[in-house]
User: Which sequence fits this backbone?
C-alpha cells in the first residue's frame, strides 16, 4: 500500500495540473479569439492600427465599390449621431473622409466608445483606417456637439467579387453595462 | 472477453469483516467514507433533484396546456425553464452517474473502496449546498436566473438584464464544478491504482471504461465552465468587458467558451449511459457483448470528437461559411462511432436468448429512442436546415430524446438492474413493467409531437404560442403529466424494494447470465467488499 500512496500523489498532481491548465485555457481563449477575429476579419472586426496614407499610392480606377455607412446608437444613450455621407462610391485606394455629427442630448457628461465593424466580414481586412474617432473614447459634456472624423480607404487587394461594403459604427457608453 | 472472477473466497471474507459495519444514526451519512454509502447519497440526491426539476417542468407544461397566459407570468416562466435545465443537468443526471460510479466501479474492478474516500465524502456534501443556494434564488428579490441554462451574455453578464440572484447561480456552478472535478479525479485514481490482479484495462467492464473516459472529459471541461462563469462575475461586478462590446469584448465569445464546455458536457451525460446499456443488454440477451473492443474505441472517438464540434450550437451567430462546414462535417462524423455502438448492441441481441425484465425493457427503449434523438441531431447538424430548426421545439425534442429516454432511461435501467445487488431484495417485476410502459408511452407522447411543432416554427422558451400549435401542446402536456406521475410510481417501487416488501430475496448472482465481479458478492453487497483483491483470470 505504501508505494501505492506515492502513485496517487503523482497522478492526482497530474490531474490537478490539467484542471489548472484548462481553467487558464478558458481565459487564454479571450486574447486568442480577439486576435483570430482581427486577423481573419471575422465578425467584421478590423485592427485598430492607423494606416499611413502613401500620397503616391495608386488608385485602382478600373472598379468602384459602394460603401454604405451606418450609425447606430445604443438605446440607453440619448445622443444624435449620424454621418454626413450615407453612401459613397469609391475606387480602391481612394481616401475618403466622413464626418460624424454627434451631440450629447443628456444632462451629464458621457464618455462614448464607438465599435467599428465591416460587413461582409471578408472585406474587413481591406478596410484601412488612417484616422478614426473609434480609436479612442470620445467625451462630450452635456449638450455638447462634435464633428467626429473617420478617414479610411479600401485596399486595392479587395477581392473582385465584393462590390458593396457596409461599415457600421455603433455608439455605446464606454464601460457601460447596457 | 468479460472478466471471469475467481470466486472461491470472498463470501467467507466478507463474513470476517462484519464488525466493521456502518456507524449508527445520521453521522453515518455525514461522515461516511464508504463508497456504497456515498453512492447511495448521490443517487438519492439526484432522485430528489430529478423530482424537483421535474415538478418545474410540470408547471411549464401546465402553462403551455393551452395558448394564452394561464398560470405564471413570462418572467417566472423563463425562471422555470432555466432552473429546470440547470437542475436536471447538474443536479439529476450528473450526480446519478457519479452515484452509480461510486457504487459500482470498486465492486466491478475488485477494489475495497474508492481511492480517495475522504475527498469522496467532500465531493458529495458540496452538492446539497450548491443546489440549496441555486434553488434559494427562487425566493430572492427579482427571482431566479431567467436567461436559460446556457446563461448567454449579455443577458447574464449585465446587471441590467439579469436578476441579482445570478451571482448565487455563478457560485453554485463553481461549487458543482469543484464537486464534479473531485469526483472525476477519484474515479481516475481508483481505476488506475485499485484494479484487482489480472484486471487489465482492456478486461475492465464497459461501464468502468465509459466512466474513465467521462472522468477525463469532466476534468478537461468543468474548469472551462468555471472560467466562463468567473468572467460573467467579473463583467457584472468588477468592470471587466469580456463580453461587453462597449469595452472591446464580444458576447459571441461567451457562446464559444460555453459550448466548448457544453458539447463535451453532452457526452458526459451520455457516455456512462452507453456503459450501462452495454452491461445490461448482454445479461438479458445471454450473449457476450458484440464488438467489445470496438465499443471502447467508439467511446474514445466520441470523446475526442466532442471537443471539435462546439460551434454547431452557433450556426446562426454569423460564423464564416468555411467554419460552419467544418463543424457540420465534424458533427456528422460523431454518427460513425455512435452507429458502431448501436449496431453492436443490436448484434448482441441478434440470436440471443432474450428475456424482457424491466432493466432490459428500459435498455431496449434506450436503444430505439436514443437513436431517434441521434438522428434528429444529424438533421440539426445540417447548416441550412439548422437555420430553420434553431431555437424551435425541434431542438427541444432532439435534446430531450437523448436525455430523457437516453440518459434518464439508462439510469432507471441501472437502478432496476443493480437494486437487488444493493438492497438484497428483488423489485416487483409487475410494478416495474407498469412503470416502464407508462414511461415509454408518456415519453413519446411528450417529446415526439415537439418535432412537428418545432418544424412548424414554434419557438422554444416562450410562455405562449400561436393557436395552430394548441392541439399538439395539449397532447404534450398530458404526456408530461403522465410521465411525471410514472416517476412517482418509480419512487414507490424503489422504497418498496429497499424495505423488502416485494417478498423475493435476491441471490448473489441476481440474474441468470450476469457477468462481472459485482455479481460474485452476496446480495446485499456487504458494507466492505474485496478487502482482499479477487484474482481475475
Assistant:
Amino acid at each position: 500500500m505504501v508505494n501505492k500512496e506515492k502513485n496517487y500523489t503523482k497522478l492526482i498532481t497530474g490531474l490537478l495540473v490539467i484542471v489548472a491548465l484548462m481553467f487558464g485555457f478558458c481565459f487564454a481563449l479571450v486574447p486568442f479569439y480577439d486576435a483570430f477575429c482581427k486577423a481573419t476579419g471575422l465578425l467584421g472586426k478590423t485592427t485598430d492600427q492607423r494606416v499611413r496614407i502613401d500620397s503616391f499610392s495608386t488608385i485602382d480606377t478600373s472598379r468602384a465599390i459602394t460603401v454604405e455607412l451606418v450609425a447606430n446608437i445604443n438605446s440607453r444613450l440619448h445622443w444624435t449621431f449620424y454621418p454626413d455621407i450615407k453612401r459613397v462610391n469609391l475606387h480602391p485606394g481612394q481616401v475618403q473622409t466622413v464626418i460624424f455629427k454627434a451631440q450629447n442630448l443628456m444632462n451629464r457628461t458621457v464618455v462614448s466608445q464607438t465599435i467599428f465593424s465591416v460587413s461582409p466580414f471578408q472585406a474587413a481586412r481591406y478596410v484601412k483606417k488612417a484616422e478614426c474617432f473609434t480609436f479612442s473614447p470620445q467625451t462630450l459634456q452635456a449638450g455638447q456637439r462634435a464633428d467626429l472624423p473617420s478617414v479610411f480607404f479600401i485596399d486595392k487587394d479587395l477581392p473582385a467579387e465584393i462590390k458593396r461594403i457596409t461599415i457600421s459604427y455603433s455608439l455605446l457608453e464606454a464601460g457601460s453595462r447596457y | 472477453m468479460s472478466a471471469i472472477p475467481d470466486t472461491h473466497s470472498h463470501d467467507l471474507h466478507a463474513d470476517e469483516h462484519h464488525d466493521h459495519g456502518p456507524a449508527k444514526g445520521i453521522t453515518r451519512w455525514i461522515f461516511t467514507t464508504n463508497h456504497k454509502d456515498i453512492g447511495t447519497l448521490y443517487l438519492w440526491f439526484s432522485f430528489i433533484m430529478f423530482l424537483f426539476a421535474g415538478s418545474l417542468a410540470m408547471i411549464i407544461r401546465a402553462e403551455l396546456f393551452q395558448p394564452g397566459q394561464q398560470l405564471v407570468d413570462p418572467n417566472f416562466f423563463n425562471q422555470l425553464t432555466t432552473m429546470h435545465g440547470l437542475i436536471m443537468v447538474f443536479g439529476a443526471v450528473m450526480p446519478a452517474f457519479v452515484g452509480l460510479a461510486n457504487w459500482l466501479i470498486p465492486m466491478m474492478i475488485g477494489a475495497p473502496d474508492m481511492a480517495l474516500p475522504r475527498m469522496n465524502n467532500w465531493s458529495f456534501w458540496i452538492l446539497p449546498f450548491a443546489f440549496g443556494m441555486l434553488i434559494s434564488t427562487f425566493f430572492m428579490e427579482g427571482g431566479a436566473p431567467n436567461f436559460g441554462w446556457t446563461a448567454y451574455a449579455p443577458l447574464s453578464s449585465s446587471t441590467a438584464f439579469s436578476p441579482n440572484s445570478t451571482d448565487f447561480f455563478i457560485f453554485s456552478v463553481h461549487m458543482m464544478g469543484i464537486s464534479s472535478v473531485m469526483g472525476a479525479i477519484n474515479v481516475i485514481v481508483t481505476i488506475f491504482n485499485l484494479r484487482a490482479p489480472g484486471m487489465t484495462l482492456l478486461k475492465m467492464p464497459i461501464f468502468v471504461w465509459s466512466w474513465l473516459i467521462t472522468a477525463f472529459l469532466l476534468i478537461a471541461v468543468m474548469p472551462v465552465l468555471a472560467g466562463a462563469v468567473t468572467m460573467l462575475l467579473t463583467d457584472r461586478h468588477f468592470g471587466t468587458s469580456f463580453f461587453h462590446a462597449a469595452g472591446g469584448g464580444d458576447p459571441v465569445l461567451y457562446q464559444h467558451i460555453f459550448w466548448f464546455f457544453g458539447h463535451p458536457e453532452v457526452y458526459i451525460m451520455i457516455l456512462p449511459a452507453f456503459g450501462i446499456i452495454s452491461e445490461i443488454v448482454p445479461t438479458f440477451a445471454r450473449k457476450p457483448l458484440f464488438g467489445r473492443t470496438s465499443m471502447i474505441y467508439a467511446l474514445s472517438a466520441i470523446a475526442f470528437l466532442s471537443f471539435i464540434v462546439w460551434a454547431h450550437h452557433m450556426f446562426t451567430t454569423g460564423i464564416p461559411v468555411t467554419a460552419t462546414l467544418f463543424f457540420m462535417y465534424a458533427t456528422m462524423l460523431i454518427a460513425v462511432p455512435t452507429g458502431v455502438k448501436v449496431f453492436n448492441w443490436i448484434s448482441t441481441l441478434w440470436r440471443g436468448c432474450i428475456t424482457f425484465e424491466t432493466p432490459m425493457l428500459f435498455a431496449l427503449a434506450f436503444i430505439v429512442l436514443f437513436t431517434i434523438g441521434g438522428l434528429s441531431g444529424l438533421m440539426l447538424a445540417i447548416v441550412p436546415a439548422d437555420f430553420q430548426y434553431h431555437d424551435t421545439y425541434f431542438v427541444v425534442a432532439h435534446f430531450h430524446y437523448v436525455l430523457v429516454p437516453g440518459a434518464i432511461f439508462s439510469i432507471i435501467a441501472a437502478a432496476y438492474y443493480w437494486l437487488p445487488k444493493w438492497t438484497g431484495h428483488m423489485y416487483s417485476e409487475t410494478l416495474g413493467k407498469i412503470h416502464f410502459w407508462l414511461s415509454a408511452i408518456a415519453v413519446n407522447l411528450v417529446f415526439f409531437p415537439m418535432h412537428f411543432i418545432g418544424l412548424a416554427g414554434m419557438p422554444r422558451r416562450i410562455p405562449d404560442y400561436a393557436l395552430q400549435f394548441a392541439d399538439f401542446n395539449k397532447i404534450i402536456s398530458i404526456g408530461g403529466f403522465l410521465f411525471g406521475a410514472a416517476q412517482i410510481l418509480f419512487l414507490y417501487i424503489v422504497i418498496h424494494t429497499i424495505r423488502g416488501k416485494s417478498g423475493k430475496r435476491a441471490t448473489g448472482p441476481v440474474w441468470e447470465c450476469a457477468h462481472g465481479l459485482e455479481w460474485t458478492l452476496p446480495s446485499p453487497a456487504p458494507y466492505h467488499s474485496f478487502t482482499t483483491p479477487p484474482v481475475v483470470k
Remarks:
- The interface with chain A takes residues 115-116, 154, 158-161, 181, 184-185, 188-189, 192-193, 219-224, 226-228, 231, 236, 239, 241-242, 244-248, 250, 252-253, 256-257, 260, 318-320 of chain B (CB under 8 Å).
- Residues 1-18 of chain B have pLDDT under 50 and may be disordered.
- The longest helix of chain B spans residues 74-109.
